Amino acid sequence: MPELPEVEGLALDLAGRLDGRAIARVDIAAFSALKTFDPPLSALQGSFVDGVTRHGKFIDISAGGLHLVMHLARGGWVRWREEVPALPPKPSNKSPMAARVHLDDGSGLDITEAGTKKRLALYVVRDPGDIPGIASLGPDPLDEAFTIDVLGGILQAAGRAQVKGVLRHQGTIAGIGNAYSDELLHAARMSPFKPASSITGDDLQTLYDAIRTILGDAVARSRGLHAADLKSEKKSNLAVHGRTGLPCPVCGDTVREVSFADSSLQYCPTCQTGGKPLADRRMSRLLK
């Protein structure tokens, strides 16, 4: 799933490519992806792009006083094309195509979604705040207003909830997903199951520094990259996420995994849990 650094990099790449361009039309191939009907898609036609910004994991293309907003969900992405076919893409359950944005010079964007679970969402709105997912976002962790006191307040309000889930919840902190929550906790040498409200003092400072450093460095690496290169950049710089069975780059211990119904987390026992493996509840059930 694209998270804050990749979405930021994608927004920056699109901002450069769409500068000075007008939207000729937007074709929808997956009708379930379009979540709004007023204003209609046709209202974007002929509008010059004013800019591209990010709200958490949402990308916002502003044009002519309106906003074409997309949330790429788990399997979505945006691909730049120097030339797009004139004919609209055909709706098909087997095709990854969700939508296509045609620009006035014949170039455009293919908005795609891999996998069978179609969760990608597109909106045309007058104000991004009209989208419930944006209106309910927590603070951006790279914003200057996101201070250590803000983080401390969030953790205390979460009580005994596991810190991994608190970091991932978009209404609590915007933009952090499964991958970067693993990476932040590894950098902070902290168990993903640690109760949020127990993180105080030096532990709070360590986690705050990890958030700012890991995400800040990832955003810096993403700047200037083309959209096609952002996914590989992310993968090549992960320490534990998606690296089950491989050595931890810090201590050399084997990276382990805890599996859930539709996701998993990765961690290093030596760096994060005092050498003790965490219980994998799914495997425990299979062994009973």
From TrEMBL:
Q: Which GO terms describe its biological process?
A: base-excision repair
- Matching InterPro entries: FPG_cat (IPR012319), H2TH_FPG (IPR015886), Znf_DNA_glyclase/AP_lyase (IPR000214), Znf_FPG/IleRS (IPR010663)
Task: Report the SMART domains cross-referenced here.
Answer: Fapy_DNA_glyco (SM00898), H2TH (SM01232)
Q: Where is the FPG-type domain?
A: 239-273
Q: Which UniProt keywords apply?
A: Metal-binding, Zinc, Zinc-finger
Q: Name one GO molecular function term.
A: zinc ion binding
Please give the PROSITE patterns that the UniProt record associates with this protein. FPG_CAT, ZF_FPG_2
Q: Zinc: present as a keyword of the record?
A: yes
- List residues of the Formamidopyrimidine-DNA glycosylase catalytic domain: 2-120
One Pfam match, given by its short name, reads: zf-FPG_IleRS
Protein's name according to its UniProt entry: Fpg/Nei family DNA glycosylase
Organism lineage: Bacteria, Bacillati, Actinomycetota, Actinomycetes, Propionibacteriales
